[in-house]
Every structure is written in C-alpha cells, then in structure tokens.
TrEMBL record:
It catalyses: [protein]-L-glutamate 5-O-methyl ester + H2O = L-glutamyl-[protein] + methanol + H(+). It holds the Pfam family CheB_methylest. The keyword NADP does not apply. Its EC number is 3.1.1.61. This is protein-glutamate methylesterase. One of its GO terms (molecular function) is protein-glutamate methylesterase activity. It comes from Pseudoduganella lutea. Residues 18-190 form the CheB-type methylesterase domain. One of its GO terms (biological process) is chemotaxis. Gene3D superfamilies: Methylesterase CheB, C-terminal domain. Keywords: Chemotaxis, Hydrolase. It is an enzyme of class 3 (hydrolase). One of its GO terms (cellular component) is cytoplasm. The active site is at 23, 50, 143.
Length: 202
C-alpha cells in the first residue's frame, strides 16, 4: 500500500496510544515492524504476547537491544509514557484503568491465555476511544479478535496483519471475520503506518 493511502487512514486522527497483540510468530513480527521508531516516538506502545513466564524478561532484554524505544514490563499502577514499548507481564492480565494507569490481575485466562489480548484491547478502547490504534498480528487462537472489534466500535483505528503472510493465520482471520478492520496490511506496511503516525500529530 502506498504512503498516500496509509496517510489517509491517519488523517485528522488524534492518537494517544497504540496497542499490539500477537501470539505464535509474534516475536518475529514485532522485530519487523518496530525497529526504526525513534526514542522520541510520541505514543506509548502497549504489547501483549502469549509467552511463558520464563521468557518475559528475555523479551525485554531482546527488544531493548534492537530498538531505540525504551522497553519495559508494565507494572501495576504505572503510567504509560510516550516512546516506551510495554510488554504485559507473563501470567498477568494487563488492563488500562480510567485514569490511564496499568492494572495487573490474576483473573482466569481468556481463550486459554493470560495475559489476554482481548482484556488489554477492550479496556484500552474504553479509556482511549477514537484516540487508540489497535494492531493484531499472527497467532494461533481467537484472542484479540473481540478486543480489536471493541477498538473499532470505540472509533479507534484497527489494523490486522495480512493472514496470507502471517506465520499462523488463525488470529488475523478471526479478527477479520468478527468485524472488518480498517486496514489489512503486510508487516512492511504496518511498519510504515507507525512511522507515518509521527507526522500526524494534532
């Protein structure tokens, strides 16, 4: 997709946060779309990956070595800060409270996942409304489809990785089936969309 079409999707849109969900294949997908974003990136990036507890700290370390963005694990009552990539801690659901701080919980898994993408996306949609960008990437279950639909209903921009290039297409296909997203893009275009979002500050 050309820059003009991507820019049109962002036109006149105020952005306060970006939320990304992924499961199987998600680490490689993130490594493709996030490098190149500067430390001064004007939004927090809230990320939920289905990972085992033992791997969570490794994710922070691995991405810190590859990105200009600060990389942190979200902490309870922490405030999302621009220019920072936050990972949901393993085995905790990550919610966004009305006062725009993180909340961690041990509620039952959703779609066999904790953290669940749906919980983060749905609560972020409630808080940020049309100022939220939701991105759903490769994955092997239905987690994230309902969350992305909630972002769309709230007026946020919804983006799904093209299932044809996803390592596992179940998650993006379910999101598309449940509610048509604003954009279905290959990873190279999602990366470009994030870059162009910096030029769209209101």
């Amino acid at each position: 997709m050309d820059d003009a079409t991507l820019a049109l999707a962002l036109a006149k849109r105020r952005i306060s946060a970006i939320v990304i969900g992924a499961s199987a294949g998600g680490v490689n997908a993130l490594i493709e779309i996030l490098p190149g974003l500067p430390r001064a990136f004007p939004y927090p990036v809230l990320t939920v990956l289905h990972v085992m507890r033992a791997r969570q700290n490794q994710l922070v370390e691995v991405f810190s070595q590859r990105l200009a963005l600060r990389v942190e694990e979200a902490v309870d009552k922490g405030e999302p800060v621009a220019g920072t990539l936050y990972f949901a801690p393993a085995d905790y659901h990550l919610s966004i409270e009305a006062d725009r701080v993180f909340s961690l919980s041990l509620e039952p898994p959703v779609h066999f996942a904790r953290p669940a993408i749906d919980i983060t996306m749905e609560t972020a949609a409630d808080v940020y409304g049309p100022e939220l960008v939701g991105i759903l990437l490769t994955g092997a279950n239905h987690d994230g489809a309902a969350g992305l639909a909630a972002i769309g209903r709230a007026g946020g921009l919804t983006v799904v990785q093209d299932p044809a290039e996803a390592q596992v297409s179940v998650m993006p296909n379910e999101a598309i089936r449940l509610r048509a997203p604003d954009l279905v893009l290959p990873l190279r275009d999602i990366r470009r969309l994030l870059q162009l979002s910096m030029e769209n500050l209101q």
